[in-house]
Amino acid sequence: MDLYLTSLALGGVGLAAMAVSGLAHHGHDGSSAHGSSHGHAAHSHGHDAGHAHHSSDSHVGHTKDHGSSALLALVSPRTWFSLCLGFGTAGVVLRSFLHGPLLLAGAVAGGLLFERLLVGPIWKLVMRFESSPAQTLESAVASEARATSTFDKSGHGMVSVEVDGQVVQLLGTLSPTDRALGVSVRAGARLRIEEVDVARNRCTVSLSSG
Questions:
Q1: How far apart are alpha carbons 35 and 171 in whole angstroms?
Q2: Can you tell me the distance from the alpha carbon of 84 to that of 128, in angstroms, rounded to the nearest whole number?
Q3: Which CA distances in Å does 130 have to 22, 41, 42, 77, 123?
Q4: Quick one: which of 71, 85, 115 has its CA closest to 5?
Q5: Class (C level, CATH) for 137-207
Q6: What are the tens digits of pLDDT across the range 157-197?
Q7: How far is CA 57 from CA 49, 54, 196, in A?
Q8: What is the pLDDT of residues 122-162, one digit of tens each?
Q9: Cα(113)–Cα(120) distance, rounded to whole angstroms?
Q10: Would you list the domain boundaries of the chain?
Q11: pTM exceeding the 0.70 threshold for the entire prediction
């Protein structure tokens, strides 16, 4: 069995399979982010609370992380598939000119250069096109909304806000401060979202000063 052709085929098939499964996984993560963002925010709050205690060890931790990242890159299946593809390709191309140990050395060098200069940068670029986490209704807080109806005397009316590229209709309640000031809201008025009640599809708004 030809070493270089086998290596070329193994690397090509492996990289292709990883690329397809990786993009599919990123797409799934993006679609599930809507439901998990609230829990993630709570987790982030707890993480921030303990950050000060951790800061004294941050320099050592970053150094260890850098070393760990380099080691993981070295042993990752993607790196090995890339090296195999480069090794096989270089071997097939160079065997018309080189033989024996020189051919083996040239194939090894070709594999390293292939990973370092071509596949590695391209892979990083492709992975940047993963799906962005979907924005949730909570992210609309402090955003601008529009009154789609004139608010009644008790300060209630319908508002619309754009969330993740989609226009969402909510029942809006004028903030207590604006109600106390006797603020009236007509259809088309610009509003600011102060709070959001996702479960009841409602929000608290104030008249935008812009």
A1: 22
A2: 24
A3: 9, 21, 24, 20, 12
A4: 85
A5: mainly beta
A6: 999 998 878 888 999 999 999 998 888 999 999 999 999 99
A7: 16, 6, 38
A8: 777 766 665 555 567 788 888 899 999 999 999 999 999 98
A9: 10
A10: 3-127, 137-207
A11: no
